[in-house]
Amino acid sequence: MRFITAFAFDIKFQWRHGFYFAYAFVCACYWILLNYIPEAYLHKSVILLTFSDPSALGLILAGGILLLERDQGIHDPLFVTPMRTRDYLFAKVASLSCLSLIAAWVIHLTSIGIPKSPVLFSVGVVLTSSLMTLLSISVVVRYHTINGFIMMSQVYALPLALPLLGFFDIWNTKLYLLPTEGTLLLLESAISDLTTVQIGYSLFILLIWNYGIYVWASYSYKKYVLGKIGEGRDGL
Amino acid sequence: MKKYLVLLMNDFRHAGTDPVLIVGFLGPLILIILTRFGFPMTAHWLETSYSFDLNPYRDFTSALFIVTIPMLLGMMTGLLMLDERDENIISYFAVTPLMRKGYLVYRLILPIVISAIWSVMFLLYSGLIEFHIEYLLMLVLLVIEAPCFAMLVAAFSANKVEGLALYKIGAIVFIAGPIVIFFVPDVWQWVAVWIPTFWPTKIFLEGSKGETFAAIYNFIIGFMVHIALLLMIIRLFIRRAD
After folding, report:
1. Model confidence, pTM
2. Which end of chain B is more exposed for a tag (fewer CB within 10 A), N or C?
């Protein structure tokens, strides 16, 4: 119940602050852009756009939300209630994943059509979005300014973009230890069939990374946000 | 002047913790290096892997990257101003001898200066552009775009979260300028005259073709559009801050 309440509040918050409007605009622009991409490059372009934007939107947005909440002193009263860190983090992850999923589907439907494997495609988007959101929270609690956070979030996320080199055949080595290798496979399920091993690997690597980053986010949040409650904004 | 120097020194001191200046210097530098060395490599790779010739898009790539420099600096400044407004720092400045106007002047001059330096460096060292005198007109418009973008984010957003959403939209709109100039047929291009980056890109293209008169003509219109936009957004920001 606490999770549902926090989730509903987060969705309303994101709606009120124009996230859905912004992504409607972004999707419209991608739709126009993809209309001009030649057929031969269309599939790779759609996967690249889905990978770099809807899937990763939590990376910047989650951090911005947390910084604002901290400025407004929301965390102090929030955790006087029965709300637990787990509910708080899951609500952020779930609400931003909803936006990611809607945007990814709109981009696909308007360019290629219904993904060949809708479930795997959706799972790929959601697990990547949750990973990026949790990474964002882990990083943002250590910084006080939005610019500082944006810069550092890019530094942390940069290695996760490395599998794109293999995706574009720039090098042939697969980086199987990185979760985004699994993301790209699941996103490709929208246009081609995956083997059972590929599906198993993708789900395994994304789930393991999600769990690891969740533990880090939870620890960081407790240490840098909850640990400072009561010190006032100056203490944060 | 002394009060601005004090602020500048303060910003330099805090550059490590609030990295607007670091990004302001490093971002464009990385862009120049990537363009100089990355463009030929990418062109070669696309040619061999996909039989796609990137060279006809050399001017488009240059225009796209050069408008990114003021946009990057403007975004960082706009988000910094939102941070300062969320923390009520702007209100504190308003009651110091600097006053709100001084604060705005200081915050907007810095991205103008840094944009000017890096845009010139990009023109000279990106390896993609052959210099034409008309490009100086383009530079004037480009440096006005940094404060335009900063104020756009700061004036239309109630807080930093809205600023991030707006940045997303603003970045696409700004990038649309070069795309329209290079890929949209003649008559339809005029639909995009309200996009600031439309004008410097148009001058860039005309400069590369040696059409000096057209470049001057478009500079005059573009300059008026930029100044009108900047003044309108500044007025909105001040009203919002009140």
Report:
1. 0.85
2. N
